[in-house]
Specification:
Oligomer: single chain
Number of domains: 2
CATH class of the largest domain: Alpha Beta
CATH architecture of the largest domain: 3-Layer(aba) Sandwich
Order of helices and strands: EEEHEEHEHHHEHEHEEHEHEEHEH
Helix content: 25-40%
């Protein structure tokens, strides 16, 4: 396996189990979104990858081998709690981290100059970190995680608190790292961003993997959806289509907009729906509805939590 792989990893703190047999793979050049609510186990997983914690059971492997301290020197880490020195100038800050990697002062300065150019902060080398915008501080934090020319990046909430422009900038920087073969694992609560940026997603809930796979596969839940908009209340239409087998119907508050869901992804609109709409009359528009990954995952979490609640 070419990449980082966690297999059957479990971890407890005291009597509380935080991770339950977690499987997770980050391949080189792949961007993996790691999502889940607070307390789901994301940060614990990252600390296990970094060697800050040991698993109670399971394996962490690097290119098929048991991971070692030397392997972990090739992992760049960006913690959620930022680790910059606010009163240090940008270039001096990056030089400092490059020196911690064991570089000579000349090499550290060269690395700093290269990274400052790559993150788009030319001309701000002498600016104190505290005087930068939050988005630019995040760029410096990312640069600090890159000083060791890592093979993998582990980024804990790298987009937290950023405005849309800064989010786009950070996303492009991450894409560039993946394009040069760096594997990226990042956690985020911004599901729209995860859907837009990631190749693969792993959804964690209370220490268990609830869903894992490509964004395309996870977004395909085996359903097709359409919205019908009428010029008048569609009560008769709703009553008729509610009798159609395997059709789920939802009506907006105005009673003129109707959302219909049927089994089978990529299906054509069933003839029964078209006939019912024509019979009702007043149809203004009809369109396919593409549900976001965030909506689908929220629905799955709700069902999962309701089921879990029922078993208690």
């Amino acid at each position: 396996m070419n990449g980082l792989q966690l297999t059957g990893v479990s971890r407890s703190f005291g009597g509380r189990q935080v991770l339950h047999g977690l499987d997770l793979t980050i391949r080189r050049g792949e961007i993996v979104g790691f999502i889940g609510g607070n307390g789901a186990g994301k940060t614990t997983t990252m600390r296990l990858i970094l060697g800050l914690l040991d698993p109670d059971s399971g394996d962490v492997r690097w290119d098929g081998e048991a991971i070692t301290a030397e392997h972990r020197r090739s992992i760049g880490y960006m913690p959620e709690e930022r680790g910059l020195y606010p009163q240090m100038p940008v270039r001096e800050q990056i030089v400092h981290f490059a020196l911690l990697e064991g570089n000579s002062i000349q090499r550290a300065r060269s690395i700093a100059d290269e990274l400052i150019a790559s993150i788009g902060l030319d001309g701000r080398e002498g600016t104190l970190v505290q005087d930068l915008s939050l988005g630019n501080q995040q760029r410096v934090q990312l640069a600090a995680s890159l000083v060791g020319d890592p093979a993998f990046l582990v980024l804990d909430e790298p987009f937290s608190g950023l405005d849309p422009v800064a989010v786009d900038t950070m996303a492009e920087l991450i894409r560039k790292q993946a394009a040069r073969g760096v594997g990226v694992l990042f956690s985020s609560h911004q599901l729209e961003l995860v859907e837009r940026l990631c190749d693969t997603v792993c959804v964690l809930d209370r220490g268990r993997v609830m869903a894992s796979g490509s964004v395309v596969d996870l977004r395909d839940d085996g359903m097709s959806r359409w919205r019908f908009l009428f010029s008048r209340p569609a009560d008769a239409f709703v009553a008729e289509v509610s009798l159609i087998r395997d059709a789920s119907v939802a009506v907006d508050a105005d009673r003129a907009s109707v959302r219909i869901e049927v089994d089978g992804s990529g299906r054509d609109i069933p003839t029964e729906l078209l006939v019912a709409a024509q019979r009702h009359g007043g149809l203004r528009s009809m369109e396919a509805v593409h549900t976001s990954l965030g909506d689908l995952l929220s629905e799955r979490f709700i069902r999962s939590n309701e089921s879990a609640g029922g078993r208690r």
